[in-house]
Amino acid sequence: MEHVELSAADLLLRPWRDEDAPAVRDALRDPAIAQWNPQAGGPIDDEVALLWVRRRADWSTGGHASMAVTAAADGELLGSVSLHRIHDGDASIGYWTVPAARGRHVAVRAVVRLTDWAFADLGLHRVELCHAVANPASCRVADRAGYPAEGTLRESYRYGDGRRYDEHLHARLATDR
Ligand SMILES: CC(C)(COP(=O)(O)OP(=O)(O)OC[C@H]1O[C@@H](n2cnc3c(N)ncnc32)[C@H](O)[C@@H]1OP(=O)(O)O)[C@@H](O)C(=O)NCCC(=O)NCCS
């Protein structure tokens, strides 16, 4: 898959770059991101962060499209949004925002923009979004981004504290209004 950049008002979604690694290191150390977007492996250091951005910058398998969410004005890193498990018209979407960017609907706007691109340009039919029931902010992002809830998955995912949590499954279809 070819890299793209997507604009959304004051946001620019763009592929990850090596120079994002220090900001990613700090973000992945945020307790809320460590809990709800857990990374495999040990502590987050510079090397882990660099591998993280390089893995996400490589779209060559066609299985994911991972974007840095930045401020269009000055390039500040605000968050992450990614389509993953892209296969046969389906994908899943994930996201986080850095603490300083929260409360401005950055995640909602990034999810809407990437989803619109997924339907219009990738030709996907269904995008799923899962979050822990214990993470109500993420539920709000899903609702606001037009992903209706479809049900509760019981103890379906092990989060950062090592415990399994129930999750809400939300999804959008290309044919949704
Ligand atoms: C969840 C997250 C992505 C939301 O980021 P954001 O775009 O900055 O979202 P906002 O802070 O603007 O909040 C979005 C909505 O959630 C609401 N919200 C925020 N914190 C909340 C909480 N603790 N409980 C309930 N609602 C909450 C906001 O009021 C807002 O609702 P509104 O649209 O009615 O105003 C961000 O908090 C985050 O990165 N958290 C840690 C990692 C994470 O949870 N990732 C998602 C994994 S599925």
Automatic annotation (TrEMBL):
Gene Ontology molecular-function annotations: protein N-terminal-serine acetyltransferase activity; protein-N-terminal-alanine acetyltransferase activity
PANTHER family assigned to the protein according to its UniProt record, in alphabetical order: ACETYLTRANSFERASE, RIBOSOMAL-PROTEIN-SERINE ACETYLTRANSFERASE
Every N-acetyltransferase domain range: 11-166
GO CC aspect terms: cytoplasm
Its lineage reads:
Bacteria, Bacillati, Actinomycetota, Actinomycetes, Micromonosporales
Xref: Pfam families: Acetyltransf_3
Coiled-coil stretches are none
* Gene3D superfamilies given in the database record: 3.40.630.30
User: Does the keyword section mention Transcription?
Assistant: no
Extract the SUPFAM superfamilies matched here: Acyl-CoA N-acyltransferases (Nat) (SSF55729)
InterPro entries (alphabetical): Acyl_CoA_acyltransferase (IPR016181), GNAT_dom (IPR000182), Ribosomal_N-acetyltransferase (IPR051908)
List keywords of the entry alphabetically: Transferase
Indicate what this protein is called per its UniProt record: N-acetyltransferase
